[in-house]
Amino acid sequence: MNFSPGPAITSAEEIIRECRALVELLPSQALARARESRPGLRGFGVFPVYAPQEIIHAAGLMPVGLFGAGAKLETTRADSRFQSFICSIARSTLELFLSGDLGRESGFEGAVFSSICDVARNLCSVAGRNAPGVYVEYLHLPQNAATPAAREYTRREFARFRDNLAGRVGRPIDDEAIRRSIALYNRVRELICELYTQRQERPGSIRTADLFAAVLAGTCMMPEDFVPMAEALLASVREHAPVPRDTVNVVLEGAFCEAPPLDLIDAIESAGCQIVEDDLAIGWRIFRKDVPVEGDPVAALADAYLAGSAYTSVRHDSTRPRTRGLLERVEASRADAVILASAKFCEPALFDYVLFRRALDERGVPHLKIEFEEKMWTFERLRNEIETFTESLLFD
Ligand code: SF4
Fold it and tell me: Of all atoms in ligand 1, which is nearest to the CA of residue 345?
C-alpha cells in the first residue's frame, strides 16, 4: 500500500478501499505494513478513548489504536480470564496481548489505557499480569475536569507518562520533538474535521462508513502517511457531486470506545439515515482547536484535554452535563433524530442512556437504541428496526 504523496492513489474509492483493507489487519500486521517503509519502527497501543499520542509519536513510536480485533480473532484465552458479561473490545484486546500480537516480538513497546471505566482499568492490570514482559501504562485522567487543580494534575500525569515512556525506550522525549508531533497531529485533526464538515454540509459527499474507515485507518498508520492520504481523500470528496435522497438526519451516539462493525454503519445508512454527527473514534479527533506549539508542550496537551475537548461521556466535567453535550451536538448538526448505538455490556453507555433518553424526550427529539458487538454477522434485523424508525419519521 502506498499512501505517500503522488499519483499512486487519487480517487476516493481507491483510498477508501485501502483504508478498509488496513482496518481489517491486526495491530501487528498494520505495524508490519508501516515497517515496510520504516524498518525497525516500533508500535505502542492506545486503548480508547484518549491518550496523548503526540508523546508516543515523539518517542519515535507509532501510536496504534486498539479498537479490538473484530471478528479476526478467536478469544478463547481471554474468555477464560473474563466473566461473560463484558464488552467485546475488552475481550479481544486481552486476546491480542495473550496471543503475542501486542508483544515485543511483534514490534510493540507496550500500550496505554486510561480511566474511562472499571473494565478498562481491570483490562490494563489483567493484560500486564498475563502477558509478562509487556509494558502497560495507566493514565489517571481527572475525574473532574472543571476544578482549578485539574490543570496541574493533568500536566503532571502526562509528564509522568512521558518520563516512564522515555525510560522504556531508553532515550529522552524532548519538548521540541513533542511540539513537532503536536503540529503534525493538529494537521491530522484539521483534515478529519474538514471531512466531517463536508459530510455534514454536503450530505452524500462521503458516506459515514467510508469516513469512519478512513479515521480508523489513521489510527493504525503513521500520521506522516495519513496526512497526504486524507488530503487526497478530501480533494476527491470536495469534487464529488452528491445525489440527493430522502433521508433522516441522525446523530450516532454511544460508540465512543468500541468500534462498531463497518457493516453496521452501512446498514444504518442503507436503512434511510444520513449520519450527520457521531462520536466514533472520538479520542483521535478530540480537540476542536489546534493545540499550541509554543511553550510547554505537555501543559498544552493537558490544557487542550481539559478545555478544548469535544464532549464525550467518559470525560467528566461537573459544570457541563453530558446531556447538554448531546443536545448541542443535535442542534449544531441540525439532526432530526438520535441513534443511541452502544457496545453490548458497555456500562458507561448504559448509564448515559438513562440520562440521554430523558433529555431527548423532554426536547422532543426522536431516538432509537441499538446495541452492537464485534462478532456480529448479520445486520438484517437491525436494518429492519432502523428502517421502521426512519419511515415513521419520514412519513409521519
Ligand atoms: S466499551 Fe464501554 S465498558 Fe467496554 S471498555 Fe469501552 S467504555 Fe468500558
Answer: 3
- Cα 12 off chain centre by: 21
Residue 227 within any structural domain of the chain: no
Residue 134 CB less than 6 A away from ligand 1: no
Q: What is the DSSP string of 22-65?
A: HHTS-HHHHHHHHHHHSTT-EEEEE-SS---HHHHHHTTEEEEE
pLDDT value at residue 77 = 87
Residue 387, domain member (yes or no): no
Residues facing 274 on adjacent strands? 249
What count of other Cβ atoms lies within 10 Å of the Cβ of residue 349? Answer: 26
Per-residue pLDDT of 200-250, as tens digits, reads 999 889 999 999 999 999 999 999 999 999 999 999 999 988 887 889 999
- Side-by-side strand order, sheet with 42-46: 61-65, 42-46, 108-114, 135-139
Mutation pick for ligand 1 pocket among 87, 141, 352 (CB with most ligand atoms within 8 Å): 87
311 Cα to the center of ligand 1, angstroms:
17
Do the beta carbons of residue 10 and residue 232 sit within 8 Å?
yes
Is residue 136 a part of any domain in this protein? yes
Question: 3-state SS of 192-223?
Answer: HHHHHHHHHHCCCCCCHHHHHHHHHHHCCCCH
How far is residue 374's CA from residue 361's CA, in Å, rounded to a whole number?
Answer: 30
245 CA distance to ligand 1 middle (Å): 35
| Domain span including residue 151 | 38-176
> Residue 255 corresponds to which cell in the numbers above?
460508540
CATH of the domain at 59: 3.40.50.11890
Give me ligand 1 centre to Cα 342, in Å. 9
Question: Does the beta carbon of 371 lie inside 6 Å of ligand 1?
Answer: no
Q: How many domains does the chain have?
A: 1
Pairing of strands 108-114, 135-139: parallel
94 falls within a domain: yes
CB atoms within 10 A of CB 132: 7
Residues 64-120 have pLDDT tens digits of: 999 988 778 888 888 888 888 899 999 999 999 999 999 999 999 999 999 989 999
With 0.85 as the threshold, say if the pTM is over it.
yes
